[in-house]
Amino acid sequence: MRTLFENRWALVTGASSGLGAELARRLAEQGAHLALTARSRDRLDDLASDLSRVNGIQTRVVCADLARPDGTDVLLGGVRELGVPIAHLVNSAGFGSNGAFAELDASRESAMVELNVSALVRLTRALLPAMVAAREGGVLNVASTVAFQPVPYMATYAATKAFVVSFTLALATELEGSGVRAMALCPGPVRTGFQAAAGIARPGLPIAVLTAQRTVADGLEAYARGEHVFVPGVVNALQVRATRLLPTALATWAAKRTMQRLGRAPKRLRG
After folding, report:
1. CA 234, CA 214: separation in Å to the nearest integer?
2. Which tens digits make up the pLDDT trace of 25-45?
3. Nearest alpha-carbon partner for 123 in 80, 170, 187
4. Does the active-site annotation cover 157?
5. What is the domain range of residue 113?
6. The pTM is what?
């Protein structure tokens, strides 16, 4: 796996915390040079300094808010100013919400689509041609196990991740034989800051919860193998497989009951 990343530049979005920070750490351990982006400069500067010192790699920081319509342009402008060739794009930035859609903040739901979908597409389109020309590198998109069925009370988030999986699968097929790879990493519940931001008290069934370290280590190995979609963890993989065998209506009902059981549905809408 090290030969895939060593001395190549990787751009990691959402790198200031959670899976994004762990992806940056693991890539640094494999010898990748890193361009890190998120909204928080202090966190990015600290991470970039630590990874450079420990792993002997080069790091650069570009701050951008990809949930804003102009965020992608800000990031791409900063990357151009760095003057480094991006061999691997890691689209890890994202957030979710929790609750009845009719009661959620409309602007936040729109910002979620901007970040989870639009920014991912624009970054991929901007950076992919150079990878294809070089016949190496790839795109790693962080999706979720919720991508495989509609999820009441997380309607927008699940829909954005379904888009990411569909987009990545199509892209991976287009890229066959080009030397460039694309993979959707679909974690189940992972204990990161994501849950707090989404208003979720419990991340999921304890048997399905993985650490960020395990999720990222297994995910990067799958990416190096050339897989197109990867679900970390045996329990999560079995749940996804079972869900895909069910009729959509039944899978959606089961997702609703799970959300209610985990206390994520408004009380007056439970039943």
Report:
1. 12
2. 999 999 999 999 999 899 999
3. 80
4. yes
5. 2-269
6. 0.90
